[in-house]
């Protein structure tokens, strides 16, 4: 249904090309003169948003792949070096990682819009089926991408999900072995997933082209659900739909930028800042939020094979939706019963998402089974039944009548619906966070940090004092392997000069070699060197610490967290509070008790800590009053030591935090101005269209 094109290039070279390959005429007919229903609302802008997000994910993914090393021993480190050492690597990583969540957020709205307005009905069945195929490819791509950082949740998520294929009769074990490339998740698995994660976005792009082609053949659906009859029913795609899409995209970019610059870890998992360890299983293995409803369906069925069939069936059933719902009226706007049941279905999906983040026990399992039944009942029983018994309200004769008379009742206001979705998402994500929270430990008190908030900056004095505490107390057991001595003199760091950083490095002995005689030797540290580990290997560290392995502190403030639950999880989004890691580390350092509570059985060789999960920690109390002397006269107390060293470790985990927030402010000012300009431009363009 491309529009008539009168495109005639004037340039001789363009004329020559157009006669032989009329691509410019095709673009003009498809994206300029293409007739668009004049009653489209802002829910239709998510198609443009998804096109943008696909391009962003492919572009950032290609650049990140240039620096990524798909090897089990190097993948985690390569991701951290991208963030720390590649120019604007932190920005690329944040755009790509947050972009995955934004992509799914937009696609879910796009799909629910299609469900509500009946965009799957004749003659758009192929358009809908292609959309479901894109969704399946997105899920596969997202899962494989989540594995690539090779953190704890990446590794164990891959282990759990790939194991599901073992439920397939006869061929299950062979499929799992093929996916793993061996008999356990390891380096071959990582290589397979990296290759497929790189390839599948281009496959998605190809199917998207077919999706858009099918859209242009069948024409766009609209809120009224009636086909265009005259020229009064449509407007040219450009400038009308183009301007509305641009305004919608700019609003979405504001939402997206909030995560990129101010909340980059809000949707992630702290466990993924811990290198993958096959010997240590996380307390809760929870997938990314966009998989949670299907994860709940999987776990609600006790039989493994039946659970896998139900999980995939929950997606495949969407393919048959055009035939399950045979109602003649497309839009739920004119179907009172269908509208009510649609919103109930949305509640069911959100409820499944919440349950997918909870432990599979007790009431959660029972409610999960009920919601699973309701999910399938909506498609297999309710929609076929409604198409036979429901009496829809009269639909307008034309799109023009719908615009002029505003018949069919009010649509759900865009802003209020988005707010409702955010609250629901907060409930879902808050439940996920609660499930990942440490068990059996008190919640650390929230602290006031100089680096919190949109304008937060590191306290240079606290960082320098914290470095001293680390060197004199922590460095005997804990490494700082991702921090180089040169970082101490970089912008946003503790504020040392290049000469001071070099002098600090020279105080360390670094193992180097081999020399001309083929032997390893020790030399004074250089600014380019990284902080050396206090132990040559993990086994030596365990022997020296009674079997415990002291973690590297480079990422400790991001690798530790605690659940604040709902509604605090939602409030944190607006206040930009993301300092659960520093809160936990500071509380842990002060949480030692000389005597455990009555009835608590403290294992031999352990110490009681109020905030440590399980309370029994192998590390003895590291800090005491007067242990470290401060040159600036700051109090030599455990509380001060704890806050200072935590501030330093927060910088060690996010050395580009200040640059991120400064750039974020500039981006927000630009996007706000752009959004305002686009709004008034769009309003002027559409002034005569209504």
From TrEMBL:
Q: List the PROSITE patterns.
A: CYTB_CTER, CYTB_NTER, CYTC
Supply the PANTHER family for this chain.
CYTOCHROME B
Protein name per the record: Cytochrome b
In the UniProt record, which is one GO cellular component term?
membrane
Which Pfam family, just one, is annotated for this protein? Cytochrom_B_C
Q: Which GO terms describe its molecular function?
A: heme binding; metal ion binding; oxidoreductase activity; quinol-cytochrome-c reductase activity
How this chain sits in the membrane, per its record, is: Multi-pass membrane protein
Q: Does the keyword Metal-binding apply?
A: yes
Q: What is the source species?
A: Bradyrhizobium icense
- Location relative to the cell: Membrane
Q: Fetch the InterPro entries from UniProt.
A: Cyt_b/b6_C (IPR005798), Cyt_b/b6_C_sf (IPR036150), Cyt_b/b6_N (IPR005797), Cyt_c-like_dom (IPR009056), Cyt_c-like_dom_sf (IPR036909), Cyt_c1 (IPR002326), Cytb/b6-like_sf (IPR027387), Cytochrome_b_C_euk/bac (IPR048260)
Give the quaternary structure.
The main subunits of complex b-c1 are: cytochrome b, cytochrome c1 and the Rieske protein.
């Amino acid at each position: 249904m491309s529009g008539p094109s009168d495109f005639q290039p004037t340039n001789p070279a363009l004329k020559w090309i157009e006669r032989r390959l009329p691509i410019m005429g095709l673009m003009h007919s498809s994206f300029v003169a293409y007739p668009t229903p004049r009653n489209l609302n802002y829910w239709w802008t998510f198609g443009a948003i998804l096109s943008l997000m696909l391009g962003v994910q492919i572009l950032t993914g290609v650049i990140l792949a240039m620096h990524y090393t798909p090897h089990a021993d190097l993948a985690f480190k390569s991701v951290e070096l991208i963030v720390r050492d590649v120019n604007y690597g932190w920005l690329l990583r944040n755009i790509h990682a947050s972009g995955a969540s934004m992509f799914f957020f937009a696609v879910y709205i796009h799909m629910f819009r299609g469900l509500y307005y009946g965009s799957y009905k004749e003659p758009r069945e192929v358009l809908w089926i292609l959309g479901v195929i894109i969704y399946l490819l997105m899920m596969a791509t997202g899962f494989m991408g989540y594995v690539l950082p090779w953190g704890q949740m990446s590794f164990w998520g891959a282990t759990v999900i790939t194991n599901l294929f073992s439920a397939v009769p006869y061929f299950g074990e062979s499929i799992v072995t093929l996916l793993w490339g061996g008999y356990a998740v390891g380096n071959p698995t990582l290589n397979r997933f990296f290759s497929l994660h790189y390839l599948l976005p281009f496959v998605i792009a190809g199917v998207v082209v077919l999706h858009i082609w099918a859209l242009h053949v069948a024409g766009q659906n609209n809120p009224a659900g009636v086909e265009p009859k005259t020229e009064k029913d449509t407007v040219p795609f450009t400038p009308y739909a183009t301007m509305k899409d641009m305004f919608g995209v700019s609003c979405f970019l504001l939402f997206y930028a909030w995560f990129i610059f101010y909340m980059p870890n809000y949707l992630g998992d702290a466990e993924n800042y811990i290198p993958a360890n096959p010997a240590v299983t996380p307390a809760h293995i929870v997938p990314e939020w966009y998989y949670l409803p299907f994860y709940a369906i999987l776990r609600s069925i006790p039989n493994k094979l039946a659970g896998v069939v139900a999980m995939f069936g929950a997606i495949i059933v969407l393919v048959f939706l055009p035939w399950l719902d045979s109602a003649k009226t497309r839009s739920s706007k004119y179907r009172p019963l269908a509208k009510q049941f649609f919103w109930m279905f949305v509640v069911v999906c959100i409820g499944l998402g919440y349950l997918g983040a909870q432990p599979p026990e007790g009431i959660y399992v029972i409610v999960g089974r009920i919601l699973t039944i309701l999910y399938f009942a909506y498609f297999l029983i309710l929609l076929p039944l409604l198409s036979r018994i429901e009496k829809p309200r009269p639909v307008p004769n034309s799109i023009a009548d719908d615009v002029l008379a505003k018949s069919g009742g009010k649509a759900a206001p865009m802003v209020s619906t988005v707010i409702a979705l955010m609250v629901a998402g907060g409930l879902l994500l808050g439940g996920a966070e609660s499930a990942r929270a440490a068990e059996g430990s008190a919640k650390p008190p929230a602290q006031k940090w100089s680096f919190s908030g949109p304008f937060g900056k590191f306290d240079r004095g606290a960082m320098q004092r914290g470095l001293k505490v680390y060197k004199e107390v922590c460095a005997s057991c804990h490494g700082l392997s991702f921090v180089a001595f040169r970082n101490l003199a970089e912008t946003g760091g503790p504020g040392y000069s290049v000469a001071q950083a070099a002098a600090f490095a020279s105080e360390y002995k670094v193992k180097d070699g081999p020399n001309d005689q083929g032997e390893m030797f020790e030399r004074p540290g250089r600014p380019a060197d990284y902080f050396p580990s206090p132990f040559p290997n993990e086994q030596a560290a365990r022997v020296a610490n009674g079997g415990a392995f002291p973690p590297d502190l480079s990422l400790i403030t991001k690798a530790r967290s605690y659940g604040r639950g709902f509604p605090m999880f939602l409030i944190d989004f607006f206040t930009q509070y993301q300092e659960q890691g520093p809160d936990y580390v500071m509380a842990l350092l002060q949480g030692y008790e000389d005597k455990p509570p009555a009835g608590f059985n403290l294992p031999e060789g352990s110490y009681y800590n109020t905030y440590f999960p399980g309370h029994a920690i192998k590390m003895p109390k590291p800090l005491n009053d007067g242990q470290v002397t401060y040159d600036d006269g700051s109090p030599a107390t455990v509380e001060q030591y704890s806050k200072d060293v935590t501030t330093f470790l927060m910088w060690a985990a996010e050395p580009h935090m200040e640059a991120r927030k400064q750039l974020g402010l500039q981006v927000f000012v630009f996007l706000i101005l752009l959004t305002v300009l686009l709004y008034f431009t769009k309003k002027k363009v559409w002034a005569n269209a209504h």
